Each structure stands twice: as structure tokens, then as C-alpha cells.
Amino acid sequence: MTAFEFWNQVFGENVQDTKDYTGRPIKKVAYGQKNSKYGWVVEHILPLNNGGKDCIENMHIVSMDAYYLRKGKLTFTIDGIRCQVQKSNNGYSICKIGDKKMDMWEREFGNVEKAEDFAGRTIFKTAKGDDNSDYGWDIDHIMPLALGGKDNDENKQIVHLLTNDEKADKTTFEINGSIYQVKKKSKSDKRKWANGYDYSQKKYCIEEK
How far is CA 139 from the centre of its chain? Predict the structure, then answer.
């Protein structure tokens, strides 16, 4: 069975775009596209090196980002949400066992209900991941995983959903007429840093260790 035939079996032949279990958008035409925000692959739920079988019942479709983040682990964290492969009636499935996104909000913004991301867009604490809100937000990897970024707190920031979409997996991009670029952390005034990043010149930076 090809990847596209598996897509048709899971989602239906007429479905061209949907989301994986992490909520990341994927598009049928973007199979295997590492540099696409909508790229996806077929992954073994229970990895083969942990006793998983190479069969359709042990496969699912995931975004490229989710694939990079998991790295074949049985227990792992994606966007602050703890996930684990667990046995179910139909074989194995990935279950969410915790959510740390709110902890990151408090670490980055403190005990407030409203804040702004680096692009100046307003976000509400209660609108986490809400596509239907004008103030929805999510966690972004500053240096994209597809470009070698690490899945650690130092490489994460909270951004408006629109900002996340526009930044995608780029290191230089434009938002509302301003150009942003991922760079190493500078020696500017630490009072202008947020969660370890330099926002002083409308840019944010990652420290490479």
C-alpha cells in the first residue's frame, strides 16, 4: 500500500487537508516534504525496535514536525504536552498524559490574562490553540526542527496562531511589513529579553551551546 492509498483509507479519498494527533495541519499533496509546513509521513505507532509490527494497524499519519519531535520514543513531549504509546483494544495508540503549555505562559508572561507575542499581536491566556479566536496562541520552535532546532525550552516561544502560520519553518520572514530573522543571542540589554531571547530590535535570537 502506498502512502497516498493509506491517506485515502484513513481520511477518505476526497480529503485534501486535515490535522494530525498534535493538531498540526497536513495536506495530502505534501507527503514527505521536509520543508513544507504541511508535510507528513507514515509512522509506526509502536516502533519496530520496541516490538511493533510492520502492519497497517500499527501505522498512522503524522506531520513532519511531530515525526522529528517524537524521534521514535515511547514517551515524549510535543508542544508541552506529554504523550505516551499505550496498548488499546485495537493494538496501540498515542495518548496525551499531560499539558505544560500553561506553565510556559506563566514563565514567559507571568500571571496575566493578556499579552503580546514578539510581533505585537495580542493573545489571551484562555485562547490556547483556539483557531476560532482572534487571540489564539501556540508554542513555536524559534529555530525550526526541520532546520536543526532543538526541542527544549530555550528554543521555544509563545506566539499568536497567525504569527506561527506566517513564520512557519523559515529563519527570515516578514510579518506586517517588518522583517524578522533568527540569530544567535546578542549582548544587548537583558531587560529587553523575554525567556532568554533578544526582542530589542524586533528580532528574536537563539543561543547555540
Answer: 7
CA angle at residue 184 from 177 to 155, to 5 degrees? Answer: 85
Cα torsion 52, 58, 63, 68 to 10°: value is 0
Dihedral over Cα of 84, 87, 93, 97: its sign: negative
Round to whole Å and give the CA distance between 95 and 140. Answer: 22
- Paired sense of beta strands 178-184 and 172-175, if any: antiparallel
Q: Each residue of 122-170: pLDDT tens digit?
A: 999 888 888 889 999 999 998 888 888 888 888 888 999 999 999 999 8
Please tell me the distance from the alpha carbon of residue 150 to that of residue 62, in angstroms, as a whole number. Answer: 19
CA distance 168 to 151: 16
In the block, which residue shows the cell 506561527? 164
Q: For the CA atoms of 183, 184, 188, 190, what is the dihedral angle to 10 degrees?
A: 110
> Please, which contacts does 96-103 make with residues 24 or more away whose CB atoms are closer than 8 Å?
101/128, 101/129, 101/139, 102/128
Report the predicted TM-score, pTM, of the whole model to 2 decimal places. 0.51
